[in-house]
Amino acid sequence: MVEHFAGLLPRHSSCLPLSFEQMHRSIRLASLRPVLWLMVTLWLGSAGAHGEANSNLGGVTLCLDPQTVQVDLEAVPEGRAASARAQLTAALTQRLTTALEQDRVRSERRPSCAGQVGYTQLQASVRYLDPSSYIGYGQATYSYTVLLRVNAAGATQSGQRRGFSSGWSDLYSETGTRRPVEAVVTDWGEEQARDLTALWRRDNPTFLERLTQPGPLRWRLLAGALAVMLVSAGVLASLYKRGQVALTSSKI
Is the domain of 222 the same as that of 198? Predict the structure, then answer.
């Protein structure tokens, strides 16, 4: 933790001790944006939330449009930024749509889903931690955040929240690894997409799945089956008795 907060202090070319006024002036003039970004990242770092268990997507059709996947890159070197944005946008879109198709999640595509119930948004934000501004980090260290949200207005009688929200934020260094940060962010996007499909399937079971789950439908069907069995037994008993009477009469 000491190393993390050391990164919040600006670098100085001189190794001589600074007076209180000089330090105060240096800190005041330093850019606050990188500092605030890193503080938020450290607060969220290695922390995330898989799909909320109290979410409710019952009856919701997911809506996807050209703005469903959004990628934001900050301080990433220009030579890499363009290719990284295109790669992340294409990969995250493919992973999200594949997850929805494989798990048979009801969804639709529109030119615009803004304000629509079921609007699905997958957002990825990546920031390069320039070692000239962040002490203690290598040449290839990034902070990233991946968020997946589904807008579903309203509330259920049970008090469950409508919609879906999931997020993950962490620090990642490419130093000593063979995996670029783009691959790591893409994997987390797919992980959250799978969380979304699992909750949607839970809240929208098929007819056969509803039969195997305890609930009003199951008990009504069991009661109906029992009633049919009782009525059938009564009819068979009545026919049997009539047959016995007819047999006795013919003997007489």
Answer: no
Are residue 172 and residue 106 in the same domain, yes or no? Answer: yes
Shared-domain flag, residues 54 and 126: yes
Low-confidence winner among 16-25, 70-79, 241-250 (lowest mean pLDDT)? 16-25
Quote the domain boundaries for residue 154.
2-204
Domain count, the chain: 2
> Which of 220, 135, 146, 154 lies closest to 188, judged by CA?
146
Give the pLDDT confidence of 185-197 residue by residue, as tens digits: 999 999 999 999 9
Token code pair at residue 143:
């902070």
Whether this prediction's pTM lies above 0.85 is answered by no
Q: Which of 110, 183, 135 is nearest to 11 (CA)?
A: 135
Measure the CA–CA gap between 137 and 135, rounded to whole angstroms: 6
SS3 per residue for 115-176: CCCCEEEEEEEEEECCCCCCCCCCCCEEEEEEEEEEECCCECCCCCEEEEEEEEEEEEECCC
